[in-house]
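LAB NOTEBOOK - FOLDING QUEUE
OPERATOR: T.R.
BATCH SIZE: 2
PURPOSE: Compare the predicted structure-token outputs for two unrelated chains run back to back under identical settings.
PRIORITY: normal
REVIEWER: second-year student, initials M.K.

ITEM 1
FIELD SEQUENCE / FIELD STRUCTURE:
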Amino acid sequence: MFSRILIYLLAAIFSALVYLVFGAFMTASAGLNAITPLLSFLTAILIFGLFSWLHFFYSLIGTWLLSIAAIFMYVTWPLYFLKTWLFGESNFDAYSLIPLALCISIVALAWYAHFKKLVLPKKVSFAISIPSFLIAAYLGGYFVTHYFF
């Protein structure tokens, strides 16, 4: 039971990390010149609002979607932070390894919980899922309407 909640918390931290980095990126740059940060940002909202708790209700589908989304979010943008460090374009900082560690732990724990058939009580599942869905729907809707329209 605890591993399901831990997966939810790690997914929320991973999404918040990309969300905050996206805000800093948009503040520091003159504009969005690549689509990869935007895809990573929208995937972070989907992970926080939908995929982080979908495995509470639908174990196999939720695990697959959370795993694919976490890997996609890592590959689209935070991987560039690690790449700049590996090729000597920037100094080492632990910030480059945090998204990798979170991605690996989310995917591993999600599949562990699926194979062990760990379940949460329905009241706990709904108490966790509804607020995160509402926050993500607000953030995603606000960003999409202001960015695209």
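ITEM 2
FIELD SEQUENCE / FIELD STRUCTURE:
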Amino acid sequence: MAMSIRGLLFGAFVVAIDGALFLPLMSGGTLRVVLGMMGALPMVNILLIVCYRNLCRGTVKRPFFLGFAALGAIAVVVWFHGCLSADEDWLQSFNRWFARTLEGAPYVEEIGATIDNDSMVLKGIYYSFVNLTFLWSFTFLPQLVIAIAGGWLAVGLAAALGWRRASARPVP
């Protein structure tokens, strides 16, 4: 499949937006902002890509897409709002639980111990990757499940109402 200039520009746009959103995180943002951004960013990227694909193909009116996009956007807003309005003590306790859970995971420490001690950069990259993977499994996957459920609910609702999408080919 060939990549168009429009697709490349969109990819550059998504990377630029992600980079701009990471700047506050790297400059010492509060725990509320960090958890909110890190939890919402993967789902926002998926929603951007899905919306771009459906807009380019002209399939915006499909029920699954409409339900997926609507409930996905609601899940992102609810997550981000929940992080920004959460009690700081609760977020700190979640952060401590998160760190203790990762410290107690045997596979994390065993793999980390195999990395040469002279290469602290590699250890830092490894532990950052493990932290992000674990965090995204708690934040991104529920949002994705909610969005997919919204898509299937929209398909079921459209079928119950007798809504049929227009065929690409005229029916004789």
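REVIEWER COMMENT (ITEM 2): DSSP finds six helices and no strands in the chain.
FOLLOW-UP: none requested
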